[in-house]
Amino acid sequence: MDASLVQILNAPASFNNGIGVISDPAMSDPGATFRPVLSLVRESPETRYYSAMLSRGCPKSCSFCSVRLGFPFHRKALLSDIDALFKPLEGSPKRVHVNFEDDNLALDFDYLERTIDILDFYTGGNFGISMENGLDFTALDREKLSFLKSRNITQLNISFVSSNTSVLAENKRRYSPEDFSMVARAASSLSIPVTAYLIAGLPDEKFQSIDKGLEFLAGLPVLIGISPFYAVPHSSGFADESMFDRISPNFCKGTSFYPWNECTTDELIRVFIKARALNVERRVASERHGQVSLEFT
């Protein structure tokens, strides 16, 4: 949904010469509201798939997260603006699926419920939802997961980060692996597919610790996703901008597997490959026992 300014400037035709590109000078104003976005992503014979963003920023301060550098305040759209956003979906000849791309939408669960109520109203109940970006699992419990299940959630992507409690504390993630396990198992018991993301390459976490995190997730009813750590200027521990002048900008993205901290590129790739192998093993095992297999995302 987001595109860098460099991408837009290098290929303006790909972005309809600026049509639909939103400039938001109020993003640094803590009192400003957010202008919501709804984009049609693709369409199948039965369903129209949309990507939506109703808020930006997050009030938490996880050390590894760079969202707050660009969006220092958590800002939400007015419910009246969300109503106007979803109103064109009324009378859709196809099922509507909305994937929410917000940084932390479930923190205000009442707001999320009212948002889904609006979507339900305009689609006549013929809708599905997913949240495949920054969803904080600590904001969820069985009651809230049951509500999401009743409102046709098809996929839950949640960030596990690490099984190492010291690493979690250093990165201001105030929970235990057992807390994560309870939410993951509750979601699974409700038949909500879960992908759990482990961050590989965090400061002060070596390969052996990351591998233990993989083994922990392998014992849960989840697919394992790997989010390689990457730094951007002014990320925690990377305030010196001069170092970024000496490397390619391509290293400042997860797919580079750049060795920012203790792990080498080889180790980061090994983590990724092992996660995929564990997912395949689980899928084969579930199919062998006649269970519904987890889908890859």
What are the defining features of this structure?
297 residues; alpha/beta; Transcription Regulator spoIIAA; seven-stranded mixed β-sheet; two-stranded antiparallel ribbon; 10 helices; 9 strands; globular; disordered C terminus
Describe the model.
34% of the residues lie in helices and 17% in strands. The chain has 297 residues and is α/β, with parallel strands linked by helices. The protein has a domain of 140 residues: Transcription Regulator spoIIAA, CATH 3.30.750.200. A seven-stranded mixed beta sheet has the order 1-2-5-6-7-8-9. Helix 3 runs parallel beside helix 4 and helix 8 packs parallel to helix 10.
Judged by helices, strands and strand pairing, the structural class is alpha/beta
Strand order of the largest sheet: 1-2-5-6-7-8-9
The CATH architecture assignment of the domain at 158-297 turns out to be: 2-Layer Sandwich
**Terminal CA distance:** 17 Å
Helix count, per DSSP? 10
Spans of at least 5 consecutive residues whose pLDDT stays below 50 are 292-297
Tell me the major beta sheet: 7 strands, mixed
In total, the number of strands is 9
User: Which geometry do the CA atoms define?
Assistant: globular
At the fold tier of CATH, the topology name of the domain at 158-297 is Transcription Regulator spoIIAA
| The level-1 CATH class of the domain at 158-297 | Alpha Beta
Rg over CA atoms, rounded to whole Å, is 20 Å
Order of helices and strands: HEEEHEHEHEHEHHEHEHH
Mean pLDDT: 86
